[in-house]
Design a protein that fits this description.
Length: about 525
């Protein structure tokens, strides 16, 4: 029989005594809790269980009369005050006993801090950090000033010390694109700064893409362009008119029109409101403008063409010379540029952070060149161009650079285009049979307005149409508009999206169209 190992017996006895001791201790603790009438403690108590969570769907069941403060209003003036904010959850980050959140409301952001303490539990921190980005949240907190500016947010001098935090509408956890990626500066190196989002992905997911602070700024400026356009013209006795966009014949007798079914016949989407502007002039409105959609069935897949864009159109009578209209249009542009510069400086700064560009420069009064002067500038710089050739896109851009270098302006007017390159309704130049009373206007070397004195005499209009080979039957309504007395008049059409694109120095017109339409894009 083998002899027992004394060391094993000793270890066994020690383990047995340890187990018995632990059992007695647990029994004593349970008896003490039972005597006190308390339940055994199994987890840390959630002291803030009523201060966070998912809110029920808002179905307009009540009017609690709560007062919300906008993110842009959070400043030192509200220091130490408790406020209620509803915004998107831009980011959240859990670090030890703190959860840092960034709340975003349109163009503005503020940092919020949820700190574990007597009234805030770790469960609340975990909940806040688990809410998906882009969810809509409500936060109640105290506004506190900071020693060091929060440079990552627009509200740099304050932060929100959050006391209550609720989710109003939860976003899906997996987003088709990240706001930070879509907001990354164009000049940043991909490897160093992180991924960028290509334009098609942005446009395919436009709802999220439009939430970036850059896009929020762009489309506030777009609204500003329309407002400034109207504001100035109304101050100059112009009347806003509303023109039809479904018409019976092509606007200008051209082929690049969209055809639509109109009950038992065909109709077309208007390429221009020009006919109706001119009819309003003949109806004695004297000065008119309109803002509305323009449709062009052109298969142009370029950085500056859309099949549907917003037209800013104007037309006016003049007394003696069409330069009266040119001067009025130039004054309107100067007023518009000043308004953007003075009223939208914050938005311009926001856009330039992602898309850096030199500030737009203009002269007052606006620079006006004549066609021969433009040809001289181009020929002096090696361009072979005939007296009656139209400007190609490369030559337009080169001319813009040459004008900027010589005159220090990004905006100018080019007068006296060759008659051969203008439409049939353009008034010929009385002093030069090869020239016309027409003009284009340019921003950063790209055309943003085309205009002219219109022929207002039906006999001359018919003659010019025949020379251009236009079917008179298709433009009969247009010619008939001038048979009952028509004053001399001139005007032009402007593309809203192109004006904003060029003012901000953006490289693609789709960046300034809310939901762009081009030959390959019909959604969203």
């Amino acid at each position: 029989m083998a002899e027992a190992n004394p060391e094993v017996n000793t270890e066994s006895k020690k383990a047995k005594k340890k187990a018995e001791k632990a059992e007695k201790k647990a029994k004593a603790k349970a008896e003490a809790q039972s005597a006190a009438g308390a339940e055994p403690v199994t987890a840390e108590e959630d002291v803030s269980k009523d201060s966070y969570g998912d809110l029920p769907i808002i179905v307009s069941a009540a009017k609690p009369g709560r007062t919300f403060v906008r993110v842009e209003e959070l400043s030192e003036q509200l220091a130490d005050q408790t406020v209620l904010v509803r915004a998107r959850l831009h980011t959240s980050r859990l670090t030890g006993k703190f959860c840092f959140v960034v709340l975003r409301q349109q163009c503005c952001t503020v940092q919020g801090i949820i700190a574990k303490g007597d009234t805030i539990s770790k469960q609340m921190l975990k909940y806040a950090s688990g809410i998906p980005k882009e969810s809509i949240v409500e936060a109640v907190g105290v506004v506190r000033t900071v020693e060091n500016p929060v440079t990552s947010c627009t509200q740099q001098n304050v932060e929100l010390h959050v006391q209550r935090f609720f989710c109003v509408s939860k976003a899906e956890a997996r987003l088709p694109l990240q706001i930070d990626d879509a907001s990354r500066a164009a000049a940043e190196d991909d490897d160093a700064a992180g991924p960028k989002v290509n334009q098609d992905t942005c446009l395919d997911n436009r709802i999220i893409d439009l939430r970036t602070t850059t896009n929020q700024a762009i489309f506030r400026m777009q609204a500003g362009v329309v407002h400034l356009f109207k504001e100035h013209l109304v101050s100059q006795r112009f009347v806003e008119i509303q023109t039809p966009h479904i018409i019976s014949a092509a606007s200008e007798g051209g082929a690049n029109v969209f055809t639509v079914g109109y009950f038992d016949r065909k109709a077309y989407l208007a390429q221009s409101p020009q006919l109706y502007k001119q009819m309003a002039i003949c109806a004695d409105f004297e000065r008119v403008f309109c803002v509305g959609p323009v449709f062009r069935a052109e298969d142009s897949n370029t950085h500056r063409h859309l099949t549907e864009f917003v037209g800013l159109d104007l037309e006016m009578t003049f007394q003696d010379h069409y330069h009266e209209a040119m001067d009025a249009i130039g004054e309107m542009f100067v007023s518009l540029f000043k308004g953007l510069r003075d009223r939208f400086s914050a938005e311009i700064d926001t856009v330039s952070k992602q898309f850096p560009c030199e500030p737009f420069q203009f002269l007052e009064p606006s620079l006006r060149l004549e066609w021969p002067e433009a040809l001289t500038l181009l020929r002096e710089n090696g361009v072979d161009i005939g007296d009656e050739d139209d400007l190609s896109t490369p030559n337009e851009k080169l001319l813009g650079r040459l004008v900027k270098a010589k005159y220090g302006t990004d905006f100018y007017m080019l007068d006296k285009y060759p008659l051969a390159v203008r439409p049939f309704y353009t008034m010929p130049d009385p002093h030069n049979p090869k020239s016309s009373n027409s003009y284009d206007m340019f921003m950063r070397g790209e055309e943003i307005l085309s205009g002219a004195q219109r022929i207002h005499d039906p006999a001359l209009l018919t003659e010019r149409a025949k020379l251009h080979g236009v079917d008179l039957e298709k433009i009969k309504a247009y010619i008939d508009a001038f048979r009952f007395g028509a004053p001399p008049h001139a005007g032009g059409g402007i593309g809203l999206e192109r004006v904003l694109m060029l003012y901000l120095g953006l490289k693609n017109i789709r960046k300034t169209s809310l939901f762009p339409r081009d030959p390959s894009r019909l959604t969203p």
